[in-house]
Amino acid sequence: MEAHLSTRPAPSVALRQGGSTLLPMPTASTPQHHVLRTLIERLAVAAALPEATVAGMLRPPPKPEMGDYALPCFELAKQRGKTPPQLAAELAGSLSGDEAILRVAERVEAAGPFLNFRVRPGVLVAAILEAVRAGGSEYGSSDEGRGQTIVLDYSGPNFAKPFHLEEVLARIRALLRRSAGHAKSELNCGAVRLDTRTGRVTVDGNPVKLTSHEYRLLSYLMHHAGRVVSRSELVEHLYDQDFDRDSNTIEVFVGRIRKKLGVDIIQTVRGLGYMLTPPGNAS
Hints:
The structure is a single chain. 39% of the residues lie in helices and 18% in strands. The protein is α+β, with helices and mostly antiparallel strands. The protein folds into two domains: 1-183, Arginyl tRNA synthetase N-terminal domain (Gyrase A, domain 2, 2-Layer Sandwich), CATH 3.30.1360; 186-276, Orthogonal Bundle (Arc Repressor Mutant, subunit A), CATH 1.10.10.10. Strands 8-9-10-11 form a four-stranded antiparallel beta sheet, with helices on one face. Strands 4-6-5 form a three-stranded antiparallel beta sheet. A two-stranded antiparallel ribbon has the order 1-7. Strand 5 and strand 6 form a beta hairpin. The protein is globular. Mean pLDDT is 77; it is low at 1-22 and 152-157.
């Protein structure tokens, strides 16, 4: 199956890297560039961080009603000896009177450990209209992918034509995960087996009773076995954004899982997170 890429304009999409949703930085020609650029600059000042660091931390919130952009405060709060909700509230307070922020955001508020921004619709609409007027008939056009062909080795996924490069990449990533065995219903690590269809966990064939959160945490680690998973990534996987959780919640769950399994497969990588490896393979 060969798919010729469409060069029609596509909306900016958020990609997932290592399980965390990241915001692609708009180029200077995109309407949202000015808005996001302002947020990054003012956040960098308020948080005393390099702009590149802030740009890497901003992401879409898990629910649209929470805003357009969100800044998770887990790692930063830990570095500064504060709780994530406390730091989020402090940043919201320092930015609430920032004139540059208020020109592009109609709402800046802390929601638990996250700092959320709601962009003023009129600002983005004005930027889009200006970009359309400036671009004329060429607005949204791109040479990306022109004349190129992507060959898909799987016939299962159906593509509605025309489609965009982002859609193709998303489908390919899903297929690669399946080819790597991530679509299997049974996950194994040493003596531990987790069946995603039945929700059953066993060690050497003996059933292990886990709570819902313990099961989801173990399942996530098993899906990402051999890779370090950060604490903030686990928190985002387990909870909604507005859930006010303690700073040691993940540590408590990991401790309980280790005790219930009775085998040492969850390794703590100091300062980075956790990694699931079979016993005897820990470095």
